[in-house]
## 1
Amino acid sequence: MADTFSLQKVLEAFRSSMSENKEVYIKYYIAGWQELVSFMNSLGNVFSFISKDVVSKIQILENFISGENGSYYATIQSMVKYELENDLVDLIKRDSHPESGCRTLLRLHRALRWLELFLERLRTSSEDSKTSVMCSDAYNESLAQHHPWLIRKAVGVAFCVLPGRDTFFDVMNAGDHTQVVALLGESLPLIAEVYQITEDLYAKNNLLELP
Ligand SMILES: CCCCCCCC/C=C\CCCCCCCC(=O)N[C@@H](COP(=O)(O)O)[C@H](O)/C=C/CCCCCCCCCCCCC
């Protein structure tokens, strides 16, 4: 994907990630994340500890996709089946498979819920709404429950230097504010669907609390 961030590209990646029978292609799922990382990198060094974590998780999944068992990593569904059937997932504590595809994707999956909540707040925000408040409310409702105190504090500091709402709307490169709101309205159900499919799959296989 090209350099300039656009919400449309994120939308396209998540749209492409969904197959006709509602499986989720990992390749496009991580392409969506890659696009989001390019946006976060443009926000400055204070966010680099976050983007580094996302990049390392993308890399782990890319290595699986391009590895000798890559065909099993085509979709989240095929990955879960393959890793579980072959005992490749640490279920209780991190041990012989500390970086399985399942636990790595779970971290991005939880972050996708944050993204959904944040974008929904942005979509329905008013001119005087603060991005730091929208971001941290979405964070507290989702990812924060899975992060230790130190990370929560560091994230709180990063939220304080977030650009304002207008800048967010501009960097989405989707036209004027009305057009951005419309595109968000189109994107959110898609992101929510990808999230829910993954959530149901992980719940069904008892994978939602992987260490
Ligand atoms: C205008 C476009 C809309 C907004 C675009 C936002 C772009 C955001 C891009 C990425 C979001 C953050 C994704 C964070 C993934 C975190 C995964 C995670 O939970 N990792 C932790 C656990 O991993 P393991 O240790 O178990 O391997 C890890 O410990 C965390 C490390 C760093 C902290 C992550 C904090 C996430 C905060 C989410 C808010 C980001 C705010 C971005 C500003 C827009």
## 2
Amino acid sequence: MYSPNPSCESQENLQEEVICTLFYLIPIAIVTWFGGRLLGIVVAIVNALAWAFADSSSGHTYSHTAIFYWNSTVVFGIFLVLTLLLSVLKDALEKQTALAFTDYLTGALNRRAFSDLLQMEIDRSKRYKHPFTVAYIDIDNFKQLNDKFGHRAGDLVLCTVADLARTQLRSTDLCARLGGDEFALFFPESGQEAAQIITSKIQLCLLGEMEKNKWPVTFSIGVLTFIDNIPHTVDEVIDLSDSLMYAVKNNGKDAIRYSIYTG
Ligand SMILES: Nc1nc2c(ncn2[C@@H]2O[C@H](COP(=O)(O)OP(=O)(O)OP(=O)(O)O)[C@@H](O)[C@H]2O)c(=O)[nH]1
């Protein structure tokens, strides 16, 4: 004759409870990950209340009523910890992902991301025979500014340059910090005339802001348009634009030079 083993029965009950509690975690995890910390906390509270309600209506008896409240609090604590851990993990992941593509200081694209995107644009422009323009911007006398006003002021200038340039750009344009005090802008589908309008506007805007803050720097800018015989590699495109910017530097700084690449 079959006689149920009480310890086996209680083990099965325990297993059921654990699995049910785990099910509460799934919506909390999903909402926290996709909806954010605040929504996650709301769902954690709702789920903890649901858990307490289900527990009390299941006929579960405790040797002391305080145990029910203690268990409910522990369950809520677990839900809350999961919410907080997941939101911290997501923030960290987002930061890491952003750092892989952007410059930590200015938020502009970093050299690697800029090169990858530019390579795609070069391939597209070559295939469809569309022009594009690259503007290479170097801050003049930046070292002196750092020396006179401090590194933090220098950082602020770099951030201001990136922010101002970005406010003037279209969503399809790119803005990157290539290193130190050097920035590059990319204008797809833009010939020299269109690039002239936008770069002179950016230059005016930058100079105005520098003057307003009494930062003694100017900008040397080389703007190179590619129409035919577009080079194959990003490095060539960047080096050519850099050389044009250097021509401005060697000619007294604080100016823009435009050119069309002819191969
Ligand atoms: N504040 C700050 N300074 C930086 C950063 N990265 C590089 N620099 C400084 O930028 C300066 C760049 O110096 P240079 O390339 O000689 O530039 P410059 O003084 O503008 O000289 P010209 O370009 O000839 O006008 C160096 O002093 C670097 O230390 C940064 O992230 N923050």
